[in-house]
Amino acid sequence: MINILDKKFVPLISREVIENRIAAIASEITNDYEGRCPLFIVVLNGAFLFASELVKRIPLSCEITFIKLASYSKTQSTGSVREIIGLNDDISGREIIIIEDIVDTGLTMAQLIRQINDHAPASVAIASLLHKPEALQTPIYIRYTGFNIENKFVVGYGLDYDGIGRNLDAIYVLA
Ligand SMILES: O=P(O)(O)OC[C@H]1O[C@H](OP(=O)(O)OP(=O)(O)O)[C@H](O)[C@@H]1O
Ligand SMILES: Nc1nc2[nH]cnc2c(=O)[nH]1
């Protein structure tokens, strides 16, 4: 059990299990994109750790860029997605792979996909470390999923509770 601010969390997914799964996703992406040069779009803040562990295992020629979106306040979705840092890259004709830490309600991803599709990419795929299928409010197809989890608030491996806990090397769930 760990304490973060006023809440208690218990272990859900260990570092070893996470890293083995990331290695498997990296192999899949490497096979699927052989001979192509994908552009990874990393959704900050939460996806920074997943992204760094993933891309270092993908020996393809590729580019990596960042966008910063926010929709969560403490343990709840606010229902609206704010863009804090936008996309400056030319994505038309590119093979896009979005790297996300979690797809929960799906509102963040739905907005980002709409925004990307407005710029005529060649293809768009999503890689998300976590997914809460029961929480989804809009259909989202996730090509590469790390783990499907229950609809409970989680922290660690990039994910925070009120700004704290992103540096934990495993995933914890609210007790
Ligand atoms: O599917 P949704 O319900 O839209 O939730 C998913 C989003 O929530 C988290 O971001 P958050 O707003 O917490 O910002 P952060 O990544 O900076 O922590 C996460 O990184 C996703 O981007
Ligand atoms: N930290 C954290 N951020 C989220 N964003 C969407 N769902 C979650 C969650 O369960 N935990």
Automatic annotation (TrEMBL):
Task: Give GO cellular component annotations, separated by semicolons.
Answer: cytosol
Question: Which biological process terms from the Gene Ontology are attached to this UniProt entry?
Answer: GMP salvage; guanine salvage; hypoxanthine metabolic process; IMP salvage; purine ribonucleoside salvage
Pfam families, sorted: Pribosyltran
Q: Which Gene3D superfamilies match?
A: 3.40.50.2020
Which family is this protein grouped under? Belongs to the purine/pyrimidine phosphoribosyltransferase family.
* Main location as per UniProt: cytoplasm
Question: What GO molecular functions are on record for this protein?
Answer: hypoxanthine phosphoribosyltransferase activity; magnesium ion binding; nucleotide binding
Its recorded reaction(s) are: GMP + diphosphate = guanine + 5-phospho-alpha-D-ribose 1-diphosphate; IMP + diphosphate = hypoxanthine + 5-phospho-alpha-D-ribose 1-diphosphate
What are the Phosphoribosyltransferase domain coordinates in residue numbering? 18-161
Q: Which organism is it from?
A: Dyadobacter chenwenxiniae
- Does the entry feature the keyword Ubl conjugation, yes or no? no
Recorded hits in InterPro entries, A to Z, give: HGPRT, Hxn_phspho_trans, PRTase-like, PRTase_dom
Q: What cofactor is this protein dependent on? A: Mg(2+)
> Which pathway?
Purine metabolism; IMP biosynthesis via salvage pathway; IMP from hypoxanthine: step 1/1
Which protein, by its recorded name, is this?
Hypoxanthine phosphoribosyltransferase
Q: Taxonomically, which superkingdom?
A: Bacteria
